[in-house]
Amino acid sequence: MAAAFRLFMEKGYEYTSIQDIIDNLGGLSKGAIYHHFKSKEEILIAVIEKITAESNQMLADIRDRSGLSGKEKLKEIFKKSINRPVQNDIFTVAPDFHNNPKLLFCLLHDTIDHAAPEYILPIIRQGVADGSIETDYPKQLAELVLLAANVWMNPMIFNSSEEESYGKYMVFSQMMQSFGLDVVDEEMLKRLEELTAIYQKNKQQKSARNGG
Amino acid sequence: MAAAFRLFMEKGYEYTSIQDIIDNLGGLSKGAIYHHFKSKEEILIAVIEKITAESNQMLADIRDRSGLSGKEKLKEIFKKSINRPVQNDIFTVAPDFHNNPKLLFCLLHDTIDHAAPEYILPIIRQGVADGSIETDYPKQLAELVLLAANVWMNPMIFNSSEEESYGKYMVFSQMMQSFGLDVVDEEMLKRLEELTAIYQKNKQQKSARNGG
Questions:
Q1: How close does chain A come to B23, measured CA to CA in Å?
Q2: Do B144 and A171 touch (CB under 8 A)?
Q3: Per-residue pLDDT at A209 exceeds 80
Q4: pLDDT tens across A140-160, in order?
Q5: Of B45, B134, B170, B174, which to mutate for an interface test with A (greatest number of A Cβ within 10 Å)?
Q6: Predicted complex: ipTM over 0.90
Q7: Angstrom distance (rounded) from CA B125 to CA A72
Q8: CATH number of A41-209
Q9: CA atoms within 13 A on the CB side of A119
Q10: DSSP characters for B3-36?
Q11: Could you read off the pLDDT of A19-30 as tens digits, one per residue?
Q12: What is the CATH number of domain B40-209?
């Protein structure tokens, strides 16, 4: 998986073949690879699951921390999520979700069925109890917030330009304020723009290099 | 396609086979069907495209109507969308999006790449001009509103119970108000609950009838 991730980073997911991965594995045969993974997509999903597991540990740490209000925890989560160095790597791999319904499906369902109830919901419940978040429907708010942040604002999914991404953060910020959540600040906006730029730059380079 | 839609309605999408559809077509052979459609999923997508085309005509009519403010048009669209009789049919067919990444992918991209810019964006632009909608980012607001309404609030995608759906409408309503859009009223909430109930009832019946 380390070899696959490195190749995805260098060549881009779309331009890496299973043969490329096998060539970088020394002794392993094609049969051994196919024994574990039915397709390149499954390798990508395994790589993403590994990254997700690390991310979930970070979410759990903030969720379980003491001394922060619900709102402060939510802000901390957004900040930490976009500042992790692995984000640069992910946006460099830049898988093309447009050609990959299964990948989008996994992300969407992981967001709504797992990440939202497991990590965001307990924090929103705490925020409602400590008065820092305003909602009568914590479960649904957790879902909408994470759907917007993980899926809609993800430049890899809807291929947003830097300018379009900026508009998304601003609309997201206005939406959050209606729940008492002023969690997006200037520093976060800068970092989000940076990530979008990394993604767009790498996508163009890879496309040019591969004659696409 | 009419035969397929009727069968999907009666038996449910998951429990209808291509053979069932062929048996209801009189003379047509399996080969002729497969010439047009590679899979059952493609038949469903064709059925959905037909319904979408009718829905788009309704959206275009409201968008181009005169004498309504942007906000009034948006409210009219929500009202009309959920009140169309075909909605009852769709929620009776109740395709299981959980087993169908491609279907979800189509809906998501049609929502963001087509319906939002084509129908919702011009209305929001009008609303900004006539002072009935508050945003500096009409394109992004159009996307977020429709992503929430078409995907997140769709009980077929995330299999929401009636109670969970109600929470979604309320969170959606609060979000909309932050953009000056008080577009969800009691009557609409009732109708949304009714649609969720139709979906849940039919899903259970079909599952029981098919021993699932």
A1: 31
A2: yes
A3: no
A4: 999 999 999 988 988 778 777
A5: B174
A6: no
A7: 35
A8: 1.10.357
A9: 23
A10: HHHHHHHHH-GGG--HHHHHHTSTT--HHHHHHH
A11: 888 888 776 677
A12: 1.10.357
